[in-house]
Amino acid sequence: MKRFLFYIFVSIFVFDQAWSKTTYKEIVEHFHRKAKAEAAYVEIDWNKKLMPLFQTIQMTEEVADVFEPWKGSTNITLKLSFEILKLPHTPYTNALDSVKNDIFKTEEKINKLSKEIVDGMSADKGELSDISTSLMKNYRKWQKKPMNHEQILMIETHIDLRLFNRRAQLQQTSVKKMTDVVNAKRWLTIEAQSFINKLNDIKKMANNIIELSTSLETYKRNQDEMYNSLKEAGDAIDENRWVRPLYVDFLFGFKTDLSFSRAEIAKSSKRKSRS
User: Fold this and answer.
1) Of 173, 94, 144, which Cα lies nearest the Cα of 253?
2) Average confidence score pLDDT of the chain
3) Residue 68 has what DSSP assignment?
4) Can you tell me the mean pLDDT for 51-71?
5) CB 52 within 8 A of CB 83
6) Is residue 182 within 8 Å of 225, Cβ to Cβ?
7) Is residue 264 packed enough to be buried (19+ CB in 10 Å), middle (13-18) or exposed (0-12)?
8) Which of 14, 53, 82, 183 is the most interior residue, by most CB within 10 Å?
């Protein structure tokens, strides 16, 4: 008897686990069937209309290049660490050493953030991603209640005006910021080589240490701008992914306000917004 009850328990558990695996694609397909059954006169292919909302930026070769580890600053810090020993010890050399350390730390931040973005994008399956447990609860509630004409018309009205406009803005921001990162890397590569060329004649630069310090400070500012562009690109890519549960709740009729904040988006996907 105990063995029989155990098998029943395991069967229920396995069934529940299997049932809990639902993707965004399956939700869109279910919505399409339900909407067509209630309002066939609405001439919209909901599968075709809604599916792009749940698709994300793909990890193509071009995108992967944007988030390649950045080692341009390492050449500067290593070269400067070596050459600075040849200069007389002064407050200027201390300042150079301090900026050098900041540059190295920022490079570590850039590469850590790049890896986080790549890992997040690589793990995501777009519309084939599984929905969360909390969203599954809403899905089960929605399955039990009928759709009405007003709800379908409201979705039809807002789908282009609000949802797709927001998605387009996120994607435009992602592309623009990724382009900014690429341009910043190119510019920093030129600046790095220029700075190293100056270090190659360190005896000459010893007489104009202020110029050397100014060049390094300029490099540091541009490096910070690259990090900020990288962060903004990652934020837009994340938001495009994290906002999907709120889209689903809107389709289910559990959410009518579409002016959600980034903090709310992060909370809906159990993520922490980057500081």
Assistant:
1) 144
2) 80
3) S
4) 87
5) no
6) no
7) middle
8) 53
